Amino acid sequence: MNATPAHPCPHCGTLVEGPEGTFCCHGCATAAQLLSETGLSSWYDTRQQQAPRSQRAAAIAWDTLPTRPTEDGVECTLQVGGLRCASCVWVTEQVLQRTPGVKEAYVSYATGRTRLTFDPEVVALADLADRIATLGYTPQPAGADQVADRDLMIRTGVATFCAMNVMGLSVGLYAGWLDGMSETFVRLFQQLSLWLATPAVLWCAVPFYKGAWGGLKNRTLHMDLPISLAILVMFAHGLVATFLHLGEPWFDSLTMLVALLLAGRMLEARGRRRTAEAAASLAAVVPATARKVVGDAIEQVPSDQLAEGDVVLVAMGEEVPADGVALTGGARARMSLLTGESRPVTIAAGDELVAGAVIDEGHVELRVTRTGSDTVVQKMAQQLEKACDQREEVSAADRLAPVFTAGTLGLAALTLAGTWAFVDASEAIRRTIAVLVVACPCALALSAPMVRAAGLGAAARRGLLLRSGSALLSLAEVDQVVIDKTGTATEGEPRVVRADDEALRVAAALERTSAHPIARAILSATAERGIPIPTAQQVREIPGEGLRGRLDGHDWTLGAGDGGQVVLRRDDGAWWPIELQDIPRSDTPVAIARLKDEGAAVELLTGDHVDVARAIGDQVGADRVTAQVSPSDKQQILAARQAEGHHVLFVGDGLNDGPALAQADVGLALSSGAVSSVLVSDGVILGGHLSALPTALRIGRLVRRRERLNLWRSGAYNVLAVGAAMAGLVNPLVAAILMPLSSGLVIGSAASLERAVRKAG
Fold first, then answer.
1. If we measure between CA atoms, which residue out of 98, 91, 59, 62 comes closest to residue 78?
2. pTM higher than 0.70 for the full model?
């Protein structure tokens, strides 16, 4: 009986009996049809690996997942598993982007997060999850527990088992050299070692072969190519040595090499995952439940069900469930999430607390002001996720890696030819394998993204959310800081700095129904001094004069004076000045002093009068004050500073600051500022704390320094290690140990960045 010919499934590659082009299942046929309908059939010609088999999305209530409203609809983040190469990312993005109703789709290969912006009236999230599953990948809600790569773990375990047993047989062979061993047992032990080495080479090492082959198919010299060549050359040498009895087969070195390389790759993946998790897990500090005060009772409710105005009770040792204002004082809280300061601070009634703060002593009643995605910590998490997922421009290390791989192959060929000609074939193979294994371009590729991710996390924990690692590196070059005065360096609201109590009493009576900023300043000062506010009669606004009203048997007028004053006049000619001033934020002078310590000159820009601007500049310690600046002038001033050779950081918050934020080398906006300024900025300062600025410069410089140090270390390691291998001073087993150590230095450097920032203060 003739067997039906078998052909691979066109989609997933599973062997199927039947004519060529037969799909293995309805799911793969559906996936192929989906790619065809979206005009993406060309993916089959460029993919690096076979696609996974189509599946159904998990039974999850997709339409109940949290979404964030945007101008184009809503935004939602999913976690996608099973992405195995860049082609997986590309085809997933393209299918989603070509789905009606989807405005934007972005997939991060590094983290597996997929950010979707879509119109829920046109397409449901459940349908989008089904499309992802149809392609063979696994959609999950964002934040779902990520399981480590089980396939890599199993391969590492099997390789380790093979290596340990081969090492045991090798010990017997080495001992036999001393006491004499029958040739029969020597051959038996070598053949057993061959059988144990075979699965390590033909199955455990497959990830390296896939990486190498995928690179060759796309005409790229992948980092796995020299590793794959080393493994295959060692295995071929072992086969020849075993069956033709030509020297040592090196199966102990071969199996240990595979085991160590896989273990190094697993630890490397774990290090990348831990770095990303450390940078993007800020939202996890918010407790799942809260104790809500309802009348005389306290109810346990989910934190995501709290609403603005609710009152919650937070006891000692508990985390604050939402942003809010303390109604009671006396408690002590740790705010290290935002400030990096581990010492607890005393909370007074009226103080603001953010979600995630920990009550260290006492308890506090809190009136909720922001919940869910509006809380500071959630905004930090969202911004940081975007920054860590964002595609960076191709780095020098990425461009260098193919050249490095080509150089490694060239040196290996030179070593093989030279040693074979002047020493012997066995030594030539040993040295060549050592060269192929010891070279480590991985550290080059890891040096930038890992340190930048750690730097983004360190900045976020100190109240600065940057949109990319490139912005972080740009901060390292800043030598000129330009700050918009009103609302950025200052509080943006006038305050009464000098006034007679009786004048305040009458002025407050005239202003008590007004919402003008000057009215708010007068009423606030009156309340702070504890002055009772009377009721004025016949209050009216007179154009060109101000407010007029009658109180205590007199007619009063409150109008503008000179130099930022308002003047209260009585009908008998007596008058009293009330001096107002936009006062600096409490941390502005300290922040500017620390910016100077970092080597940056500080300039204030303002539209105010020169005298007012200089007074504020003197108070905060600015190097330069430019007054009477129109909104259109700001961009020109920054361009002039850049033309002078300065690398400029601009900080603003107003509607008119957008052009200046875009002009600056780095533009930072206050989170409380206008939406337009936040959208065009390179980062956001949370809570208006300018103290984040000098810390940001320091973090940027630390990141730049560590990137360069890692590149130097990696280059020096490769020069020395490859040179030693070519000279015969490094055997393949030692090379397998040295290679992951090079990557380990990069991972350790990124992990220690937070400690370095704290040490630097």
1. 62
2. no
